Amino acid sequence: MQNVMDQFAERIREYYENPLVPVARQFLYRSPPTLGELRRPPMVLLLGNHSSGKSSFVNHLLGSDIQKTGVAPTDDGFTIITHGPVETDLDGHAVASNPNLPYEGLRHFGDQLVSHVKLKLRPTEFLQGVTLVDSPGMIDEAKAESGRGFDFPGVIRWFAERADLVMIFFDPDKPGTTGETLRVFRESLGGIDHKLLIVLNKMDQFHSLHDFARAYGALCWNLGKVIPRKDLPMIYNTFVPLEGQPRGGLLMDDFDKAREDLVEEIHRAATRRMDNQITQMAAFAERLRLHACVIDEAAELYRASRQRAYGYLVLMTMLLGGGIFATGLLVALPALAAVVALVIVFFELVSLPRKRKRLVNDFDEIFEGLHDTEMLMRDQAEDLRLMWDEVRPRARDVATKRGLQSFERLSWTDRELLNGLIENDIPNLRAELYDALRDKAAGQSGALSGEPGPSSPKPLRTDPLPFEDDPYGNWTGSRRIGGEVG
Ligand SMILES: Nc1nc2c(ncn2[C@@H]2O[C@H](COP(=O)(O)OP(=O)(O)O)[C@@H](O)[C@H]2O)c(=O)[nH]1
Ligand SMILES: [Mg+2]
Fold first, then answer.
1. Whole-model pTM?
2. 92 lines ligand 1 (CB under 6 A)
3. Which of 79, 100, 102, 120 is the most exposed place for a label (fewest CB within 10 A)?
4. Final residue of a domain: which of 232, 267, 302?
5. Distance CA 194, CA 463 (A)
6. Which one, of 81, 398, 86, lies nearest residue 95 by Cα?
7. Cβ(2)–Cβ(128) below 8 Å
């Protein structure tokens, strides 16, 4: 399975290398994910109230007491647990400043956060397929405001966007009622609900069906307020088997089964990762095409109007010059030269810059023009407009700062490559991924090998995805160096 995944990863990398990165450079689009980001193993983020059992679940998965657990808030930081040949712990500063690790982006959240991050390398086999991120428990809003010292929802969003699976733990005492939990749902998890797994833990603590029903009902009620969906998401009712734990008053077999399902979902994270990477590439490519086409069109209009202006100038100069020679009034020649020079200065300093500014202001119109001619037949209209809303600020920004005159023409080859990628290659790649997974599933119906069941992978999405703003970090194999950032 790993082999198949590696092949897909390689193809994704090739598509980035050509055409995405060169076109992104030419039009100063934001940087694609770094190679480190593309190569990292799938990531599962664990969220939830404090003492809802996140760390206990991590220990259960890994079969050893890697994380501290306890009823009092035991952990106030993020712990990244990943595979390494020898047991090593790194502190946040070592993690966030290491360019070989995909966590440099955490530095944006400041020292206070970085000092609350830990990386644990463990030689556990389970971790070869997945990285786990244990998070500090969510607490009451009042305490959170005074306590954290960093943008908690922002950090959760950072991890959640990169994660292939986000598990949210609730326990019977606090089924989703803390202010911070609701805030995290609203601010950090919007648009990524396809990655969420909701867990109602500590099922062994219920003594009666009545207790369970109340807690389950409260959880659904609270989720309904923050997850904008018509249907209720799947809730895994389970518990972490702990030593000396009395079996609760309800039938426990179902809850054991739910835990097995959860573990299976985690094993499928590798598949989700590939699916997410394809989605991420599709989102990148579509937005890049929009960005590049609008700027290219504007640059083309600018070049045409510049050519026209100089064409008139040459024509006028020739007519007047011809007149001067014909009438023998050669004394007028210096005056003509001076006028021509003045007009050129006027063009370059006044009228052409004004034209460029006007074109940048008219980006919406240019988009609508392209939309009606070449793009409409390619995509769903509304999606494109929403996408343009997202792309517009950056397109305007780079066109203003760099100047329309400095963008080289988008070559016919690149345009075709980009269209082919979006319309054929990416859908084909995804179909091939599903085929490979189906073949694999048919070949061996083992539960833990990472193939999708009937319910997975989840439907495709084209959410905007996060890209580090480091300019083209470690991309070395790009075709061209032209159109470099000025
Ligand atoms: N009865 C019961 N206790 C649990 C379960 N999961 C965790 N605990 C206990 O709940 C407490 C908090 O667990 P911990 O994993 O530290 O929670 P975290 O704050 O979410 O990481 C610990 O004392 C655990 O032993 C469970 O499923 N059932
Ligand atoms: Mg914990």
1. 0.70
2. no
3. 100
4. 267
5. 11
6. 81
7. no
Side by side, the strands of the sheet bearing 88-91 are 88-91, 117-122, 78-83, 131-134, 43-48, 165-170, 196-200, 235-237
Which ligand approaches the C-alpha of residue 50 most closely?
Answer: 1
Instruction: Report yes or no on 455 lying in a domain.
Output: no
- Asked if the structure places residue 389 within a domain, the reply is yes
Residues 165 and 249 in one domain: yes
Same domain for 200 and 59, yes or no, is: yes
* CB of 74 shorter than 6 A to ligand 1: yes
The whole domain housing 109 covers 40-267
CB atoms within 10 A of CB 65: 11
DSSP state of 40: S
CB 197 within 8 A of CB 238: no
- Per-residue exposure over 99-131, b if at least 16 CB sit within 10 Å of its own CB, e if not: eebbbbbbeebeeebbebbbbbbbebebbebbb
Residue 35 region, left (φ>0) first, then alpha (ψ -120 to 50), else beta?
A: alpha
Q: When comparing pLDDT for 460 and 110, which is higher? A: 110
252 shares its domain with 327:
no
Residues 242 and 379 grouped into a single domain: no
Last residue of a domain, one of 222, 237, 267: 267
pLDDT at 330: 87
Residues 285, 288, 292, 294, CA torsion sign: positive
The average pLDDT across 346-353 equals 93
Say what the pLDDT of residue 462 is.
38
Number of domains in the chain: 2
Cβ-proximal residues to 178 (8 Å cutoff; 6+ apart), any chain: 49, 138, 139, 140, 141
Residue at 198 is within a domain: yes
Whether 293 and 233 map to the same domain: the answer is no
Q: How far is the CA of 254 from the centre of ligand 1 (A)?
A: 19
From the CA of 248, give the closest atom in ligand 1.
Answer: 1
> What CATH number should be reported for the domain holding residue 202?
3.40.50.300
Integer angstrom CA distances of residue 255 from 12, 120, 306, 394: 39, 30, 72, 49
Which residue is listed with tokens 């193809």?
A: 11
Whether residues 59 and 171 share a domain: the answer is: yes
| Ligand 2 centroid to residue 53 C-alpha, Å | 7
Q: Does 263 lie in the same domain as 205?
A: yes
Quote the CA–CA distance of 209 and 83 in Å, as a whole number. Answer: 41
- Whether 26 lines ligand 1, by a CB cut-off of 6 Å, is no
Query: Residue 290 class from Cβ within 10 Å (0-12 exposed, 13-18 middle, 19+ buried)?
Result: buried
Closest CA to 452 of 126, 4, 11: 4
Judge if the beta carbon of residue 271 lies within 6 A of ligand 1.
no
Ligand 1 pocket, residue 171 CB under 6 Å: no
Do 101 and 234 belong together in one domain? yes
